[in-house]
Amino acid sequence: MARTGIHLMAAEKIKEPSNPRARGSQAKLTPKQRRLTAEFEEIAASIGMDYWNILDYDEDGRTVILESMKQQLIRSEIIMKYTLIDEFFTVIICHFYFKIPKQEFTFARLWRTKKFQIFAHYLMDETYILKKMAIVDAIKEIPSPIKNAIARINDVRNAVAHSFFPENRRRYKGYKKVMYRDANVFSAEAARCCAGGGKRKTRRRNACRAPERTRTAGNRAFSAEIMATEGQDS
C-alpha cells in the first residue's frame, strides 16, 4: 500500500533493515547496535526520512517528498554543527573562569556547585554564539578565517532555523537560494564542503560533560574542521 504522507508512523517493529546498504552489515553488529539500527529506521520512517523506501510513497508526490527529506537532513546538520561550535565556546569560557591551577578540571565537579550552575544557566545559556566568540577572542585571539567561517555558519543557521522558506530572506533574495559561500546550501556540493571532503568517523559526547582529554581533542578537531572547511578567506 502506498504511503499518503511524509509523516507516516511505522506500523510494526523492523526485523531487518529496509535500507539495502545496511542488510549485509547485520552480522557485524552487536545486539544493542541492531536494536539501535531498528529504532533509527523506525524513527526515520515516522518522520518521513526513509528515502530508501521512496517507492512506497505515492508516485505523484515522490519528488516533493525527496526534496523535503533533503532539506530536513541538511537543516539538521547545519543546526548540529552550529550547536557544537557553541558548545566548544562554552567549554573555553568555563575553563577560563573556573580552572584552578594544579587541579584537574572536570565539569562533573563543577555541576555540583551552585556558582557554576548559575553561571551556566543564566549566563552561558542566555549568550548567543557571536557574543561567546567575542569573549573567546578576548581570552585568546581567534584567527580571522575561523571567525569569518563561524559568522557564515551563524548566518546560514539563522536562515534555516527561523524561516520555512529561507531563500526568501533579504540576504538571499538575489540568489533565490540559500548560499554558503559559492554553493547552494541545499546541495551535495555544500554538504561536501561542510564535511571537509570526507566522512566523519566519530561523534563525540557532550563536550561540557566529557573528560578533559576528550574536550582537548575535540577543540583540536573543531579548529581543524573549520580550517579544512573554509581555508583562507579571499
Task: Give the end-to-end Cα distance, rounded to a whole number of Å.
Answer: 53 Å
Order of helices and strands: HHHHHHHEEHH
Please indicate the percent range of residues in DSSP E strands (runs of 2 or more). Answer: under 5%
Total tally of structural domains: 2
Quickly count the helices. Answer: 9
Order of strands, widest sheet: 1-2
Radius of gyration equals 21 Å
Key attributes of the depicted protein:
two-stranded antiparallel ribbon; disordered C terminus; mainly alpha; 2 domains; 9 helices; 55% helix; 234 residues
Compact description:
The protein has helices at 20-23, 31-46, 62-98, 107-110, 114-124, 129-139, 144-162, 188-194, 212-230; strands at residues 179-180, 183-184.
Overall description:
The protein is mainly alpha-helical and 234 residues long. It has two domains: 57 residues, no CATH class; 165 residues, no CATH class. The protein is built from nine helices and two strands. A two-stranded antiparallel sheet has the order 1-2. The radius of gyration is 21 Å and the shape is globular. The C terminus is likely disordered.
